[in-house]
Write the C-alpha cells for this entry.
Amino acid sequence: MQKNILRGRTKVLLACVIAAVLTVSGFLTGCGNKPLPSDVTLTYWCNLAATAASIMTSYTDTEWNKVLYEKTGVKVKFLHPVFGQEKEQMNVMVASADLTDMIEGSFNYYTGGVVKAYEDGLIIDIKDLQKKHTPNLVKLIEAYPDILLEIEDEEGRIFQVPQLKGNDSIRTYQGLAVRKDWLEKLNMPEPETIEDWYNMLTAFKKELKVKVPLLVNLADLRVPGLFTAYGIHPSYFVEDGKVKYGMSDPRLKDFLAEMAKWYREGLLYADFALKKDAKLNDAMIMGDEAGAAITMGSSGISRYMSLMKDKNPKFVFGAVQYPSLVKGEAPKFLQQDRLVHQAGSVTITTNCEYPELALKYLDYGYSKEGHMLMNFGIEGVSYEYVDGEPRYTELITNNPDGIPRAAISYQYFRGQGPGPYVQDSRRTNQAEFPEMKNVQIWTKFVKEAAEAKTTVHGILTAEETAAISSKQLEVNTYGDEMFIKFIMGRVSLDEFDNYLARMEQMGVNDIIAIKQAAYDRFVKKHPEVTEPKTYNLEDYFWK
C-alpha cells in the first residue's frame, strides 16, 4: 500500500513537471498557437444520480451530451463512482494519480479542499485560461461580479468552473413538511412558532393516535429548521461580525430542553439517534404513521404526493414555513445553498493534456443556448415554448414508456441536479402537485436571512485546514454524543455548562478563531460582501 501511495505521488510530481514544461514551451507563446486535436476524448468524473441510474449506466450517451459535442466539437466520456462509494473511489483515483481530465464536485472528498488539491499538484488554476476559453462564463461574471467572491481564493486563483443557483427560490430545497389533511381534520392552522409545533404534534398523538408525530433523525435535528428557531445555526455562523458555533452556543440549551420534552412525551421519533433508514421513513410517512418531517422538495414532497395520489387521494404532505420562537418574527437561517454550488462545480486536473478543450466544453452551459439545454433539454423534444415560457413536453411529464419524470429528465438535460451551468427556477415551477409549488414557503424569509449576514465567508489556507481538522473531528464526535444524551435524558441539562467547558478544552474556540481570521481577511478584501443581497441570475438569460 505504501509503495502504491509513493508511486501515486511520483506520478503527481511528474504531471507537475510536464505541466511546467508545457507552460514554458507553449503557453508563453500564446494559447492560440497550440494545436488542438479534434479526435481527443476527455474524461469527466462525477456522481450518477440515483434516479438516472434506473435507466442508464453513464451520462456519456445522453441526448444532452450529444448536443454538447455537436456544439463544441469536444468529445467527453463520463466515469461514475459506485453509489455509496464516492469518497473511497475518489481517494483511490487520487492515490493512483490516475485522474480524469475533469472532476465534478470540487474535491468535496479531498482533505483541505481545492486549495490543498492545487498545492498537491492535482488540479490547475484556470484563471488565465478562462479569460480566453470561457467567453460565456466571463460575460456572466462581468454582469454579476459577486460570483468572483465565491470562486476566487485569497491569491486571486480560480480552481473551478461553477454551478450557480440562478434564483433564491431554488437555493432552498429542504424544509419542514406536515400532513396538511390532518391539520384540516383537527381544524388547526399551519404552525409558525415552536409552540405551534408542540401543540400540533401533541394533537397528532393524542387526538389522531399518530405513532410518530415528528419523524426526524439526528441529522435532521442538526439542520436549519427547528434548531434555527433559537437564533443559532447548527454549524458556524456570523453574528454582528463575530464567528460563532451553534453546538457550543449557550442558546443551544433551550433547544435541547424543548427537544427533551418532546422526546419524553412521545412526540419525537424514539429511534432518532439511529442512522436514517430512507425506506423505513418512506413507509412511515406514506403509511399514516408519521405526521411531520424534515424533507426535500422533489425527492420528498413531490415523490410522496405522486406515489399516494391513487392510493390515498386525501393524503396531503406539504411544506410549512421555517418556525421562530415568537409569532411574526423572521428566523435568521434557512437551508440555503451558496450562490456557487460546490457539488456541481468542476475542476480540471493536471492530467488533462488539453485544458482549453475542457473549458470550451464546460463554457457552453453559460451561453443562452447552453442554458436552455442544461435546464430544459432540446426544444421540440423535451420542451416547447408556451406563452413565451419553456414547458416540458409529455415526453418528460407523462412519459409514454412510463419512465418516471425524475429519471427521464437526465436523458435530456442536467437541470435536475449538479453540473456546470446556472440552474433555472422555471423548471421547478412546473410541478405536478400544488404542494410541490408551495415549497416556496420555505423561502418566505429569504430577504431577512440575507440581511442577517450570517454566512462565514473566507477560504482557509492549507495550514489552517490542517490546524483545525483533528480538533473539529473531536468536537463533532463529542457534540453528537452529548446532543443525543441530553435529548434522551441520559444526561441532565444541569450539566450543560460542563459540556460547554469540555468543548472549549477540545479546542472549539481555537477553530472559531481560525475561521474568524479567514472571515476578517475576506471582508477586508471584499467589504461589499457585508451588504446583503439576493440573486436572480436568470434575468441574464431571459433579457
About this structure: The first strand starts at residue 41 and ends at 45.
